[in-house]
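Is this the right way to post structure tokens for a design question? Let me know if I should format differently. Anyway, here goes:
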């Protein structure tokens, strides 16, 4: 058992690519927690996709023993948190599990949008914050300018910021001393009823679900029966330990400590991030505040390119759901794409990560339909429901009004691209809330509709700013707007996979762009094919794909004109009949390209 005064729990917050995982590697290596021969880069990022994209997706933890300059031995618990906006809820829980943060800022780039978002979460959780300026070994590093920027933009004192190069190891000792001297020790009562916060959980094929916990009060031991307070399920602890990054069993976890338990839990769904764990008998009365189940924000359909792989896809999705409680799915069928799943995600990065993992780990080629968001539909009879899929849109005459989700977006952008960014946000029906300057960069705050952002906002933002803008958002709630369902008809048959929700003022331009694109993508048939975009019964845009023609008059040389006419009439009648019974094959590539529209 460790004395509370000698424990320090901290996390590292930073924008993507500012060197958070590398700094964690150096702290682990310099304290001898991992032998040099076992060391590898991004030690705490275990998934292939995390290593390849250079991002952290799951929160990871490690326990470090450190003997300070004053001769005392300390236990440092580091939680490496995801830096991406989609995983903001997991970050907020990890923040509540620790008392302090290292704020890592790249001394060549300065403060970025997610630096702000994450540091505000740390401030909300009452953290003591130690600023660290990383990458001082680079020639472009400018510590004084960045320290000043931290003070201007975030408002915390950066005069004593530690200057570090996580790559070369310079400044690591100073960082460890700052953790011991500047961050507060945890509080907690050993004799109170057990209260443990569930920080994260993941699935292991041998042990079942591994649960990462932070003990607030009380003591947790092997062989005890514990209860999850959100759903009342009871489990028997069969293993308890800490990560050094490998698992190391211990006899008990006391207040202020971070470790893991396994209790033969079968599904990650039973362990909700942010939940409170207590003893089955004589447990705590009240749960820890701030728990909320994760809510999917973006929905899209996943279909196998080869419909024979449907069972493999079901298998893959079920296995991924074992390991990711925030991912939801249900079966759906589509006339054009066959059987597939309608899946809910926390955001676009989450969607991409899951899609990549299915394609890579299970070797299934996927078609992803256009991402959509949840709309609130209010009917004239007073009832209301949530609409996840535009294909389920009810008859427009029965609807009173629709509400769509809005977000508050913060964009940091160099001055010369500001005009393009403002225009992009205006085009996406944004409302400007704020515009301030931090050095030579503008910070723009916009209120935007989420459905305009999920489509390809991020790609457009990166291209108009040559990759220099950084972007972060949070959900703010729902607002009524004039939204309609736009369906696409090919040969007068609706194609449900291409129907989308659009704003009425935008419907015509969106529809025209879509039908023009489809005209180029659908191959020509023996008969002419109308391609239409419609709202309800009203066609708003149309293109006609002309038929392939055989020259039936080739064998007529000279002679009577009526003979040619007769052959052409005969051909025309044949084409008319063909169009009645002919089926239009839309190739899969056409779907994929049509959904990527917006040029």
């Amino acid at each position: 058992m460790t004395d509370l005064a000698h424990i320090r729990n901290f996390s590292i917050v930073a924008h993507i690519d500012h060197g958070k995982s590398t700094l964690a590697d150096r702290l682990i290596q310099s304290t001898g927690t991992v032998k040099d021969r076992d060391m590898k880069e991004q030690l705490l990022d275990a998934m292939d996709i995390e290593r390849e994209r250079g991002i952290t997706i799951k929160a990871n933890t490690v326990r470090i023993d450190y003997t300070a300059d004053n001769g005392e031995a300390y236990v440092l618990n580091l939680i490496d948190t995801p830096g991406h906006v989609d995983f903001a809820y997991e970050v907020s829980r990890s923040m509540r599990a620790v008392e302090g943060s290292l704020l890592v800022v790249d001394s060549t780039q300065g403060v970025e949008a997610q630096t702000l978002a994450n540091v505000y979460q740390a401030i909300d959780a009452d953290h003591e914050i130690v600023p660290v300026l990383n990458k001082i070994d680079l020639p472009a590093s400018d510590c004084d300018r960045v320290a000043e920027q931290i003070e201007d933009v975030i408002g915390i004192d950066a005069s004593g910021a530690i200057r570090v190069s996580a790559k070369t190891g310079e400044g690591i000792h100073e960082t460890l001393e700052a953790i011991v001297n500047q961050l507060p020790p945890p509080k907690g009562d050993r004799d109170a009823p057990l209260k443990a916060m569930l920080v994260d959980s993941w699935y292991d094929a041998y042990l079942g679900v591994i649960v990462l916990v932070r003990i607030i009060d009380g003591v947790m031991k092997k062989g005890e029966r514990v209860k999850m307070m959100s759903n009342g399920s009871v489990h028997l602890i069969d293993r308890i330990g800490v990560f050094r990054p490998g698992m190391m069993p211990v006899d008990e976890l006391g207040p202020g400590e971070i470790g893991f338990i396994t209790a033969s839990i079968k599904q990650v769904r039973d362990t909700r991030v942010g939940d409170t764990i207590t003893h089955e008998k004589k447990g705590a009365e009240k749960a820890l505040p701030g728990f909320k189940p994760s809510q999917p924000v973006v929905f899209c359909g996943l279909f196998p390119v080869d419909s024979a792989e449907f069972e493999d896809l079901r298998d893959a999705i079920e296995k991924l759901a074992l390991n990711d409680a925030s991912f939801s799915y249900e079966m759906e069928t589509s006339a054009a794409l066959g059987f597939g799943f309608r899946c809910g995600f926390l955001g676009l990065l989450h969607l991409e990560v899951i899609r990549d993992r299915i394609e890579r780990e299970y070797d299934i080629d996927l078609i992803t339909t256009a991402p959509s968001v949840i709309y609130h539909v209010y009917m004239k009879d007073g009832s209301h429901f949530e609409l996840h899929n535009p294909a389920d849109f009810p008859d427009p005459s029965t609807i009173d009004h629709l509400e769509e989700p809005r977000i508050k977006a913060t964009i940091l952008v160099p001055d010369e691209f500001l005009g393009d960014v403002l225009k992009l946000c205006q085009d996406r029906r944004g409302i400007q809330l704020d515009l301030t300057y931090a050095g030579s960069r503008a910070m723009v705050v916009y209120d935007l509709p989420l459905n305009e952002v999920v489509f390809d906002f991020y790609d457009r933002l990166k291209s108009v700013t040559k990759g220099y803008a950084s972007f972060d958002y949070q959900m703010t709630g729902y607002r009524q707007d004039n939204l309609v369902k736009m369906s696409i008809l090919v040969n007068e048959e609706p194609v449900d996979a291409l129907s989308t929700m659009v704003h009425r003022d935008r419907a015509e331009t969106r529809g025209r762009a879509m039908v023009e694109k489809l005209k180029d993508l659908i191959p020509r048939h023996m008969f002419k094919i109308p391609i239409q975009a419609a709202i309800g019964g009203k066609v708003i845009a149309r293109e006609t794909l002309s038929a392939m023609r055989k020259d039936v008059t080739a064998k007529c040389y000279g002679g009577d004109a009526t003979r040619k006419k007769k052959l052409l009439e005969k051909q025309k009648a044949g084409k008319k009949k063909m169009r009645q019974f002919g089926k239009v094959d839309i190739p899969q590539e056409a779907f994929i390209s049509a959904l990527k529209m917006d040029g």
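Format looks fine. Someone answered above. Worth noting: Confidence is low (pLDDT under 50) at residues 42-57. The chain has 13 helices and 32 strands.
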